[in-house]
């Protein structure tokens, strides 16, 4: 295993050990590609959500947020093209019965080749995918003698399309029941509400509608922990613009979304843009923001210029006019759309991978190490841990007074067990930016020791200033 793979395995174990992410229904041996967030994971996830929501809705006066239902009228998915087009080319190995997404199978093989050969293979694959040339893809797999990792054979079926939507029944009586889908993206909930929001909010183009919510995809190859899940959450924003201005807005949102990522203090070298080679059926331009995960540069967010495709399709299928009257130019039109779509779970994984550090703190006298999550303070699940030095002499009481004063503003944690050093390590492991120790001197002069997670520096500050020190860092 490479060091990066080792690091990734260590991150997965860390997420479990410290209550960030658990396998769903683990006591029944789990459900593949479905995960639960534990006590710290749920906090971190919520903080990421809030940071995105605020940056969209509070910091832009022309963007509002909605919360649409997961279930939608089945015609929605006919109109959006998902019933006919939301599928991936798949291939099965006849000996192992294992099914692969064709692009993943070829990409996996390309990684084992020298760089130039790998790139040439990927270029050939991209060309065939663009043409939907399934026979060509199968030949490419055969020519390159790409084997199934389970059976080790090259006994492949034809390449076929496989729809990724989950379906279920609505209605109690079988005859009445109709098939509906679990939404594979949150965007359509925004499109079908375009007029509702525009009219009731008296919104003027250009304006945006944001939404955070669950999406479901029957991913065939689910790997890499929470990178690719069957149930996940998206944070999407559809920005409605005047036709002809979409290129300009696309560039603007590309820039703005990258700035959002960098505002969390991540090294810019860890990010890049990757233009889509094969455009989705609705797009006239599309780019991914990719982050360098321990398993390579991978998509975390997509920015798509979706044209007027979705609104026009809903107009046609619902037979209701979905148009906007632009008073500035005295014209009716169907707006064009720029979409920014980021996976909340992927952003969570990115945040953890970016924060995770194993540090060797050994000195000639003593061996020592720590695992620290250098999370941005505003995202950390716990902001302040408070430790009484001992369990007596009124120190726990003083610690609890500080917590009572701070807990209305941010998440605090109280701990009186074990040595201060051990308590620090536990907080480092969950990314708590500040620890405060209450000792006997506190009772004499009202000062405490505040310890900074990343530098491990400690300083003496007045107890009365602790709250503001933390608030300054997390706002
Ligand atoms: P991929 O190519 O990785 O399957 P995609 O291009 O299909 O992703 P989009 O449809 O553009 O993804 O969805 C927008 C975002 O939703 C992605 O950038 C990703 O962060 C997130 N996302 C998509 N599918 C999943 C999934 N199965 N699990 C977790 N997050 C996902």
TrEMBL record:
The keyword Iron-sulfur does not apply. Coiled coil: none annotated. Substrate binds at residues 101, 185, 232-236, 339-343. It catalyses: tRNA(Gly) + glycine + ATP = glycyl-tRNA(Gly) + AMP + diphosphate. Its EC number is 6.1.1.14. GO terms for biological process: diadenosine tetraphosphate biosynthetic process; glycyl-tRNA aminoacylation. One of its GO terms (molecular function) is bis(5'-nucleosyl)-tetraphosphatase (asymmetrical) activity. Keywords: Aminoacyl-tRNA synthetase, ATP-binding, Cytoplasm, Ligase, Nucleotide-binding, Protein biosynthesis. It is found in: Cytoplasm. Pfam families: HGTP_anticodon (PF03129), tRNA-synt_2b (PF00587). GO terms for cellular component: cytoplasm; extracellular exosome; microvesicle. InterPro entries: aa-tRNA-synt_IIb, aa-tRNA-synth_II, aa-tRNA-synth_II/BPL/LPL, Anticodon-bd, Anticodon-bd_dom_sf, Gly-tRNA_synthase/POLG2, Gly_tRNA_ligase_bac, GlyRS-like_core. ATP binds at residues 217-219, 227-232, 299-300, 343-346. Belongs to the class-II aminoacyl-tRNA synthetase family. Catalyzes the attachment of glycine to tRNA(Gly). Homodimer. PANTHER family: DNA POLYMERASE SUBUNIT GAMMA-2, MITOCHONDRIAL, GLYCYL-TRNA SYNTHETASE/DNA POLYMERASE SUBUNIT GAMMA-2. This is Glycine--tRNA ligase. The lineage of its organism: Bacteria, Pseudomonadati, Bacteroidota, Chitinophagia, Chitinophagales. The gene is glyQS.
